[in-house]
Amino acid sequence: MSSAAAVPPIVFGTDGWRARVAEEFTFENVRRCAEGVARYVVEQGTAARGAVVAYDRRFASEHFAAAAAEVILAHDIPVFFAATAVPTQMASFEVVQREAAAAIVITASHNPWTDNGFKVKSPSGAAAGPEILGVLEATIRERAGVQPPRRPFADAEAAGLVERFDPFDGYRAYVGRTLELERLRDADIDLFVEPMYGAGAGWTGRLLAGGRIRVHEIHAERNPYFGGINPEPIRPNIDEALGILAAGGYDLGLLLDGDADRAGAADERGVFIHQLQVMGLLMYYLLEHRGLRAPVVYTVNETSMVERLGARYGVPVHETSVGFKYVGPKMIETGAMMGGEESGGYGFGMHLPERDGIYADLLLLDLFLRERERGRWPPSAAVAHLHELAGPSFYLRVDVHVERAAYPALKERLLVELRDHAPATLAGEPLVRSVALDTNDGFKWWTADGSWLLVRFSGTEPLVRVYAEATGARARDALLAAGEKLVRGG
């Protein structure tokens, strides 16, 4: 590159940087990001602790990971390199276990198959927070147009500076410290698992092998096209799995996203248990079945059931901006037992301060088995019991897709319009409260019965997300329609 002005900016969103492969997500830009991480580690004086580098099953992820590792190695930082594609949270696990300086994960999580991405983990295992990402972005800008130094991967490995790792055995032992895996393995049930072709394929079955439980998994093969869907465990992406469950023969369905850091579930009838219900179920599990009473952290687009359960059990709750880069640090700050976000990401204080879809799914399995002992079986009965305690949660999210080139202008315009000309009513209901998100990327409004609508601009994709949680399906749909109208105009 002849000038810094010609280099496109790289901005880390709610969970890393993501872009279209071969357009913005190139080997050159991956190296620029890796140099930012390397310079940060060197400036912190922690280079000798090494860095973890991992990757998912997307197109060329292993090659992008090797390119990042070569830049890290050129700064005299040893590298712990994943032996194969692994769930994102395994990088968090390895950082904590090895006391490494940082981790890089090549993944675009649930994004379309055309994308890939670059995530950074802090030494705590949590997603790198604003204080780290600000430094990375500044370094990337300052070094624009300069080729980062590289040390050939094979040469560094021959010199003993690269150690390949397989996290499975260590992770299984780690999970066993806080969860009775033998108890889960001994359950005489048929469990259905949908990993969505992602890096979590095979993990649940391996962790539960050797007992009476029967685990059936679909879409376990590597398919960077993801069968033409986005690997996000929500409808319509999971409709095939829901259809299989609806046909009968299974007691519970557990879902994962493309890099397995997000969890999902469906009941024995093939009814989707939406992300906000999963948050409520997991919080109820920790409070009621595990007897924990530590704080809970949740994002502004999470369920109001968190507040109601917190009041019922006498535990404090803390709301954050969207993204685990906010949730993880808040969990550490408050000593939280759990943190969760609307997208299906849940982290646990007794585990890791980062999302782990595999662990969250295992906790859901444990919850339903414990509820069965109390006479609440099948899983749909346990979900009904949750709502008896925590109130209703009719929730849905609509993604309004925008042309990539038009997205910045639309965002800039709507942020002004929705602030200066905020609605007084939505779907015929007067608003009792409204806030602008402190991340300056959206707005949230409440009606008198606690129902809410949120309009937020994605930090990782060219789309506007419209969320609604209400006390009934009709109210939810009316709020969503009003939200879409605000975004689309008319």
Any key phrases for this structure?
single chain; alpha/beta; Alpha-D-Glucose-1,6-Bisphosphate, Chain A, domain 3; TATA-Binding Protein; 6-stranded mixed sheet; 6-stranded antiparallel sheet; 37% helix
How would you explain this protein's 3D organization?
The protein has 490 residues and is of the alpha/beta class. It has three domains: 4-166, Alpha-D-Glucose-1,6-Bisphosphate, subunit A, domain 3 (Alpha-D-Glucose-1,6-Bisphosphate, Chain A, domain 3), CATH 3.40.120.10; 171-390, Alpha-D-Glucose-1,6-Bisphosphate, subunit A, domain 3 (Alpha-D-Glucose-1,6-Bisphosphate, Chain A, domain 3); 394-488, TATA-Binding Protein. The chain has 16 helices and 21 strands. The strands form four sheets. A six-stranded mixed sheet has the order 1-5-4-2-3-6, with helices on both faces. A hairpin with a 5-residue loop joins strand 10 and strand 11 (272-273). It is globular, with a radius of gyration of 22 Å. Mean pLDDT is 94; it is low at 1-5.
